[in-house]
Amino acid sequence: MKRVTRMLPALFALVVATACAAETAPVPQARPTAAPQGQAAMAPAAATTTPSPTPTATTTAKIKLGIADITPMGEKTEKVGVGFPIIVTFDRDVRTRDRATVEALLQVESDKPNEGAWRWVSARKIIYRTKAYWKPYQKVLFTARLSELPGNTGGKNVSRRFAVGAQNISHVDTRKHVMKVYRNGKLAKKIPISAGRGGLVRGGVDVYLTTSGTHLTMGKKAVETMTSSWMGVTDPKDPRYYKEEIPWAVRISDSGEYVHQSAGYYQYLGRSNQSHGCVRATPEGAKWFYTIAQRGDVVKITGTKRKLQWNNGWSYWQLSYSQWKKGSALK
């Protein structure tokens, strides 16, 4: 017996950038060829949440609605981490009075039981997050039954199946200068790191501090170009100017934070915080982390005074589940 979950959205707010900001926005990356994740076997789908009310035909008589984008990619393209959100972008605005009707047509089914909820983040975007992390090595099916939307003549149902890979949960202690990576509950590696040193305050925020909180990995590049343009420094003659090609960069926020290989300065790794906000790691440690990283992996950072905002990237686990559900249109 399959039970279904239907919920709502919340939108990204770009916060103050850190000095690790990349030259270009991150793009989805294919899974690394190294470090196989194991196969996710399909089992009969189990409960994911409470059923939602039947849509009413009165409020959406003139709505014509489709889906412009679904994130992340499907099971044949990537495996995702246990914290991954489902982000749905519609092709037009959904009026406030119509959102409950639309949300009731969205369902999530997983092989292994889990409760979840949608949160509206804008008129076009809705995001699904679970109450607890997804269980690893399973399939999750998202379906939007848009053909059932009253007045949506010609509307088509849309679905995507996701493959959850290994459970990767990393703990970054900025005071002890170490990153511990746990795979499927077991400590896989300890990596010496250097986090944000602090010292550049803008708008009351020390943008040189790494943000403390529960991050999710959002994408990665084997080499990322990082520049000082985020703080308005573009003249190479300016002593604050920099433009560096940084290896093994895994993005963890919208404000420019990455876990990446340190560009030299290896003497600080494991000893002190000297970065502009990113988590710098040893060449071997950074490459290993890059290789296993899946979008939606959990990276918990502690030890700084700068708090991660819930809408900075995919940092939705910064909200309690009860707070998260307040963004749903289904009451």
Compile the SSE list and pairings.
Layout: E1 9-10, E2 67-71, E3 79-80, E4 86-90, H1 99-103, E5 106-110, E6 116-120, E7 125-130, E8 138-144, E9 158-164, E10 168-173, E11 178-183, E12 186-194, E13 201-202, E14 205-206, E15 213-216, E16 219-227, E17 243-251, E18 258-261, E19 279-281, H2 283-292, E20 298-302, H3 321-325
Parallel strand pairs: 1-6, 3-9, 10-20, 18-19
Antiparallel strand pairs: 2-4, 4-7, 5-8, 6-7, 8-9, 10-11, 11-12, 12-19, 13-14, 15-20, 16-17, 17-18
Can I get a quick summary?
The active site is at residues 260, 278. Residues 168-302 form the L,D-TPase catalytic domain. It contains 3 helices and 20 strands.
What does this structure look like?
- With 331 residues, the chain is mostly beta strands.
- It folds into 2 domains: 45-165, Sandwich (Immunoglobulin-like); 168-317, L,D-transpeptidase catalytic domain-like.
- It has helices at 99-103, 283-292, 321-325, and strands at 9-10, 67-71, 79-80, 86-90, 106-110, 116-120, 125-130, 138-144, 158-164, 168-173, 178-183, 186-194, 201-202, 205-206, 213-216, 219-227, 243-251, 258-261, 279-281, 298-302.
- A 9-stranded mixed beta sheet has the order 15-20-10-11-12-19-18-17-16. Strands 1-6-7-4-2 form a 5-stranded mixed beta sheet. Strands 3-9-8-5 form a 4-stranded mixed beta sheet, with no helix packed on it.
- A hairpin with a 4-residue loop joins strand 6 and strand 7.
- Residues 30-58 are annotated as: Disordered.
